[in-house]
Design a protein that fits this description.
Structural class: mainly alpha
Oligomer: single chain
Mean pLDDT: 78
Distance between the termini: 19 Å
Radius of gyration: 19 Å
Shape: globular
Number of helices: 7
Order of helices and strands: HHHHHHH
Largest sheet: none
Amino acid sequence: MARTLPTFYQSAESIFSGENPSALSNTATGIVNWFGKFESSKSYEGREGFWNFESLAELVGDVFGQLHQQRAAASLSKYFMPSGGADEAFEIIKKRNQLSKSLSLGYMSLISASDVYNTALEGGYDRRTAGIASLLSAGVLYKIM
């Protein structure tokens, strides 16, 4: 999330500012770059193909990491919904489950939107078009899920 939220901000801001990033956008870029130094890199053998220990271990780690992050996002619902008595317990659980689902789906759509934004910029699109594409993809993914 630490890299996704600054990227999401940049995509939203680029719709309005186009190719002129603000000081806050530059700060968001700095945050993304700072967190980027904690990412792992692959060896030459690991980049040659998928069927090696390094690539498979990275895939398994990414899958379990995202599942854990999604569970953490869903567990935030207990902080937004107050606890009640025994009479209201069923309704509170039902509302918390719905909020947990919404938070989890929002997290997944933001992660995907961040990937769309970065891929669009790498593909040569300008910041405004990349921002529109990423926000539309986040909305569509949230609605589809």
